[in-house]
Every structure is written in C-alpha cells, then in structure tokens.
Amino acid sequence: MSIELPEMHHFGIVVPDLDGAMDDLSSQLGLTWAPVRHGERTVRHHGRLVTTDLRLTYSMEGPPHLELIGQARGTPWEPTGGGIHHAGFWVPDLRGAGRLLARAGMTLEATYDAEDGGLLGFAYFTDVNGFRVEILDDSRRQSFDEWLAGGPGHIAGISHTALAVPDLETAMSFYGDALGLTWARPQQRAISIRVAAGDLTTEIRFTYSRQGPPHLELIEGAAGTVWAPVSGLHHIGLWSHRLEIDAARLQHRGMSLEVAGLSRSGRQPSGFTYHRSAHGLRVELVDTASQPAFERWFAGGDLR
Asked: Which CATH number is correct for 155-298, 3.40.50.620, 3.10.180.10, 3.20.20.70, 3.90.1150.10?
C-alpha cells in the first residue's frame, strides 16, 4: 500500500555537537540558522516514556530545511553517525496520516504522550529498511514558520493570571464558588529554580481553572520563596515559542530576570522564567513545549 505525503518540509540529522555543526555547515554550505530551541521533551518512545533535554535548530533556507538535533542517548535522537535521521512533512490530520503510514507497513517509533494513547504534536514512523518519516501536526505550523523567519521573539497573548495563596483547597473552593470556575487536578511538584542567591529546589502545589484562556492559576508555596502567599495578583503568564530568546529580550527591555526554571541537567532557562518590571509587575514566560501537556490537563487528564 502506498500513501501520498505533501512536499517534504525538512530533513533532519542528529549531531554530537550542535553549535559546532551549525558553524561547520554555515561555512561549508552558506546556511543560516533559526535561534536554537532547547528544553525538556517527554515522548513515548517504543511505548516507553522518556524525558530528555533537547536542543535543535533549522536552517532558514528551505524548504526543504535542514534540521540539526543535539544527540540524546536512550531517546529517538540517538547518534546517527552523520546520516539522515528523518524526512519531515506537515500533515493536516496527524492521526489520520499515522493510520495510513501504519497500514503502509511503517511502525510508530515516537510521539508526544497523549492521554488517550494516540498521536500528539508529531510522530516518527520507520519502515523495515530503517527509513524514518516525521509527520508534524499542521496546527503548529504558523508559530513554526515565524521561528524560521527569524523575526522578533514570539510571545503569545496572556495565557493565565495567578494568585499565590496560603491554602490551595480553600482558594479553590472560594474562587470556584465566587467565579463559577472548575479546576484541573491539583499538582504537587518539587521545582528546581535559579534565583539571584543561587540554585534551589522547593515544593509547590498548584492548579489552573479549566476555563480559559486566560486561565486562573492558584499556587500554594513556601514562605521565603517566590511563591510565598501575597495579596493581589502574583503574576501574568504568557506562552513563549522561544523561551531563551524572549527571556533575553525582556531583560534587555528592562524586565529583570527573577527566576529561571532548571532542567534536570542544570540548564537554564528551562520551562519557564519570571521577570519583574520597574513598576512591580511580574511576568511569567512559559515554554510552548509544555502546551500540549497543559491542554491535556485542562481537559481532565494528568499533567505529565
């Protein structure tokens, strides 16, 4: 059985040194690069959940573009020895395209972890000869094209507002009754962050309203941390398609970096940043890499 895929969007290679590969290919082929994206990614790889700190970029030239991915052992992004890792295609119906690839004899290798076990965001399929195809959900294409265009940092509209409260359940009950809100499942997490005084890990409990955007976030944190209870608004939150670049731009524009999330490897910023204006407003940037997980959580699933 054969299927028809649209024009190839990119081909990808996995490299041991992303920055070195960018420099080499710039001088050798005259390529220029979109700003490097990096952050933690959790994918279902051969049926097993794996989390890794991934760095990648695309050539601005294309299509087809050249994608460079920093190697990550034990994940779909194992070293390839310089060969082609995959060919990538945008598709309007990710799950439908996946079913067609499966019927054509290809095997699902990896996708983001969906609550219902289906495909989410992207998927890798391989054939019996080891050829790998990536299909990408077309709903992500606009922000992706903006990234490849190298335009200004792309900070989306306000995704949520947040209150830091002394007791999560009491606040959920009060604001649920007062505002008619229902809540995603409360979460308890140990969060590793970098602040001016150094690195630390602290426990927080939090939830979001299922209604939104903008959602209402309630956070119960420890005294002496950035999440200590305060009266009034704690922060406003915005999605960022390019966290590192957008965070640097906010700093350049006078919003000091207050907190940066840390990945398991200690890389920062990872996941989110907090910034403060001279007027006292706190802004959170949240990496859109986590957006699919949040959307599953708002829909009644777990936040993973």
From this structure: 3.10.180.10
